[in-house]
Structures are given as structure tokens and as C-alpha cells.
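Notebook B, p. 112. Complex prediction, attempt 2.
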Amino acid sequence: QLQLQESGPGLVKPSETLSLTCTVSGGSISSARYYWGFIRQPPGKGLEWIGNMYYSGYTHHNPSLKSRVTISVETSKNQFSLKLSSVTAADTAVYYCASLRDHYFDYWGQGILVTVSS
Amino acid sequence: QSALTQPASVSGSPGQSITISCIGTSSDVGSYNLVSWYQQHPGKAPKLMIYEGTKRPSGVSNRFSGSKSGNTASLTISGLQAEDEADYYCCSSAGSGTWVFGGGTKLTVL
């Protein structure tokens, strides 16, 4: 069974770039069965899909965030990463990484709270 | 791409059944039988409860069921139990590899 774990800074300054890494264990990030994605949840609010990546590099992004989002994969480390540029307080959220199998998110990381503040 | 519409809250007594609706459009829920439902307890990551509209992952109680009619998907929980109290989110394909979540529904077991 897959396990995912987010890591990265818990505090980012406004206008800077948020960077998170998700480490996958229990399976290969190069598996043809999965896309790898990020979802976020502002405090007290609902879930928002950010984007997905296939191990080959093929990506999809939320149109509302597309210009600020970069998702990349590091197959040698079994990791994938999120970069979100020009952050504001509105980007404060718990960020989850998850595996997207076929048409559903089946495994999730525990989440990491990222606060945007000076 | 707008969030799917869910009621903010629903409630029921132990043993009763409740249904949570998830209203989308012909561009998402109505076009694909790819709605999934997630349960989230406070401070925890979401857990997959229903996928592809009606299917249950291994280990999920058969008290949970999903359905769809037109642009509306629904999650029904029968025989409510205290541990079902949580937030529930629907999610649908919105085409072109994109996904959209509902705003979430808080279930209270009275």
C-alpha cells in the first residue's frame, strides 16, 4: 500500500515561492497506474485541486492557479514536487499530496500547513 | 471551473439514513460517471469512500452508497453511527485532466 509524506517550509513570505515535496513509499512513482497530485485546504474551508503530474512529465493544473503552479517529478528519489509562485495570504492552507488512480484520489499524505506571512 | 455545490450541513440520528447531494454541471458531474466521495475527520487527511459514482473501496462499509442523476451525484449513509460524523466532499472530473471538488458538507450525528 502506498504511503505519501509531504515536506517543506511551514512559513513562506508574501510574493515568494512556496515549495513542497512529496515522498512516495510502498510503490514506484514511475507506475503507469498513477498520476501524482496536490490538493490544498485553507483553514476552515473546503478542498481545492491544484494539479497532477504523470511520471513522464505530463501535467494538468487548476486553471485558476495555472500560471503560478509548477509540478515536477524526481523519479530517482521517488518524489514529486510543487512550486507555487507569488504567494499571498490567500495561499495559506494545508497542502496534501495524493495519488490519482484512474479517476479517484486513493492515497493521501497527512498534509502540511503552510502559512504565508511576513 | 466552479466548485460543485453541496449543502453546508446535514444531520441525522443514529440508525437513520441521510443523503448528501453534489450538484455540478453538464461539464463535470453530468458528463462523466467519475464522481468520488471523501470523508474527512477533524485534523485528518481525506479518506476515499466512493469512486466512479457507485463503487466502494475495499474496507469501506456497505452502509455507504453513491448514485447519480443528471448533473447531481449523491452519497447516502444508512444506519448512521457516531463515527460517521465528519466532513464529506464530492469530487468530479471536469474534463481535460482537471478535477473539481465540492464545498464540503458537515455531517452531525445527533
